[in-house]
Amino acid sequence: MLLFYDSDKKLVGKDRIVIGEEKKKDEGLIPADGFELSGIVTDDTKTKAGKDFYDLYFFKYSDLKINSKKIVIITEELSFARNTKITISIDANPFYEFLVNPDEEFLSLVAEEAVNVTSAYLKNLEKQSRYLTQY
């Protein structure tokens, strides 16, 4: 059982899963309690430069009011020598990556470009979901 409370300890949303129970087919995309999470960006960075990039990216992402139901994942991993590489992915599909440079101007420019690429990628996913794919 999953319960969501506000700051006044009032219940604002709940959900439960029963193993072995099948859901009704007539349930739509709207949850029964009307509570849905969207616009989530996760942070899996390891360095200060990675955290700075995440902060800039999330600020610009929020500023554009991108409110996708998909979760954007920002990960940082070791790369050549002492560099790290940041990868941005949705649904385990990486679509943008770069080597980190701790310069704030560089991080700001890359964050701006990454948000634009993310927006275009999400619009493309939405466009693809409208079309029927036949194999």
Describe it for me?
With 135 residues, the chain is of the alpha+beta class. The chain has a domain at 41-133: Double Stranded RNA Binding Domain. The protein is built from 2 helices and 6 strands, in the order E-E-E-H-E-E-E-H. The strands form 2 sheets. A 4-stranded mixed β-sheet has the order 3-4-5-6, covered by helices on one side. The chain is globular. The model has no long low-confidence stretch (mean pLDDT 85).
What summary fits the major beta sheet?
4 strands, mixed
Q: Average pLDDT value?
A: 85
Count all strands and give the number. 6
Shape: globular
How far the N terminus sits from the C terminus, by CA atoms, comes to 39 Å
Structural class: alpha+beta
Low-pLDDT regions: none
Major sheet: order of its strands?
3-4-5-6
Helix content: 25-40%
Function: May be involved in the biogenesis of curli organelles.
Protein name: Curli production assembly/transport component CsgE
Keywords: Signal
InterPro entries: Curli_CsgE (IPR018900)
